[in-house]
Design goal:
Elements (H helix, E strand, L loop, with lengths): L16 H14 L5 E2 L11 H12 L12 H9 L10 E4 L2 H12 L5 E3 L6 H9 L3 E3 L13 H7 L4 E7 L11 H12 L5 E5 L13 H4 L7 E6 L12 E4 L2 H11 L8 H12 L3 H22 L14 E2 L20 H12 L1 E2 L1 E2 L9 E4 L4 H16 L3
Helix pairs in contact: 2-10, 3-10, 4-5, 4-9, 6-7, 11-13, 12-13
Bound molecules: pyridoxal-5'-phosphate.
């Protein structure tokens, strides 16, 4: 028998903590428990009806053949026109989700051992992509004291001659941190002194911001020649399953990313591209309406969590996550007597005791916290928060 062997680049890839928790939740559900999952990051709203209609029409009209690898000209134009900064369609790549845009950028630019600065807490998938690239993750810890934001000093300290990219996620997953224009300008100042460092600005939560949002491109237009802005349809238009994202950056980088994309997917689905075109060119009122709905949920979740002794929940400025500290619960004991030693113990306890699934901070590179996604109905959130309060009250 021939033994299976993974490639070196795939050897350290493991099931993500988020997937592990989803599976544990599914197993509990199979036992008949009423599990509430606040672990995943997708809007609970439907994809807008006209977007679905446009996809249907595209299919009926025969838009069912291979699209250009870089994306259809019509969609790339709509993306450039709606970017909020000067861009032309040649600077746009359309991919199978924002995740693939980031994977394309890293695969197209990173050699083994090169470094990427990823302020922690960070979205877990960034780290996984770097593992595949055999690149080094440099993750300065950005805690509640800086609003979970990277400061200019911390950026300066993290840069080495091997740094290729700074990846800035604004508004941030899992913290919900929203960088102000001044925050971004301070980071840009450090980057000006380090011309070898390029920037990926992952702005996928742009339209879920509770204070003014500034794109990195508008905070530092002079750095456009080394900035890749990443965005997509998933979060703004509730289109996670359509798998449609885009990047806007300098042409040589985009060309390299298109070459990489040509080796895997050959480009995003033609039907999804037609749908995204309808989303971007149709009425935009739903963006503000949905943002207001998320804001109301944020307010409710933050105040309910802060009412629980041992949990400290800063107020996030965007996205649909809270990232409270649970260090006040570490050192307490379950009713069964077992000690809670880590954030993962806290999450495991809450899942087994009251069937609420949360993700521990360690998955995002910043232990001592947990992430709760509030992209769920108010009824589920109210019930889940009262269950968490009940579980905490049972600790000794
Ligand atoms: N970037 C961040 C910060 C995210 O949280 C997510 C999804 O959770 C993505 C990118 C991926 O988006 P897409 O569905 O477009 O691949």
């Amino acid at each position: 028998m021939t033994d299976f062997r993974r490639s070196r680049r795939a050897s350290n890839l493991a099931l993500s903590e988020i997937v592990r928790i989803s599976e544990a939740a599914r197993a509990l559900r199979a036992e008949g428990r009423d599990v509430l999952t606040f672990g995943t990051g997708e809007p609970d709203f439907p994809t807008p009806g006209p977007v679905i209609e446009a996809a249907h029409q595209a299919a009926l009209n025969g838009e069912t053949t291979y699209p250009p690898t870089q994306g259809t000209p019509a969609l790339r134009k709509a993306i450039a026109d709606s970017a909020g900064f000067a861009a032309d369609p040649g600077q746009v790549i359309v991919s199978t989700g924002a995740k693939q845009v980031i994977a394309n950028a890293f695969l197209a630019t990173l050699d083994p051992g090169e470094e990427v600065i990823l302020p922690a807490p960070y979205w877990t998938s960034y780290a996984d992509i770097l593992t595949v690239c055999e690149a080094e993750l440099v993750a300065p810890k950005c805690g509640a004291e800086t609003g979970f934001k990277l400061t200019a000093d911390a950026l300066d300290a993290a840069i080495t001659p091997k740094t290729r990219w700074l990846l800035l996620n604004n508004p941030g997953n899992p913290s919900g941190a929203l960088y102000s224009k001044a925050d971004l300008e301070a980071l840009a100042e450090v980057l000006r002194a380090n011309p070898h460092v390029w920037v990926i600005a992952d702005e996928i939560y742009e339209h879920i911001a509770f204070d003014p949002f500034t794109s990195f491109r508008n905070a530092a237009p002079d750095l456009a020649a080394r900035t890749l802005v990443v965005n997509g349809a998933s979060k703004a238009y509730a289109m996670t399953g359509w798998r449609l994202g885009w990047g806007i950056g300098p042409v040589p980088l985009i060309k390299a990313m298109v070459a990489v994309q040509g080796t895997s997917t050959s480009g995003a689905s033609s039907i999804s591209q037609a749908a995204a075109l309808a989303a971007l060119t149709g009425p935009q009122d739903l963006l503000a309406e949905r943002c207001a709905a998320f804001r109301a949920r944020r307010d409710m979740v933050v105040s309910a969590l802060n009412a629980i002794p041992g949990i400290d929940c800063p107020e996030p400025g965007g996205a649909f996550y809270v990232f409270p500290s649970c260090t006040g619960l570490i050192g307490k004991r379950r009713p069964s007597g077992e000690l809670l030693e880590t954030d993962a113990d806290v999450c495991d306890y809450i899942l087994s005791e009251v069937a609420v699934a949360l993700v521990p901070g360690r998955a995002f590179g910043l232990p001592g916290h947990f992430r709760l996604s509030y992209a769920y109905s108010t009824d589920d959130l109210t019930e889940g928060l009262s269950r968490i309060a009940r579980a905490v009250a049972a600790l000794t």
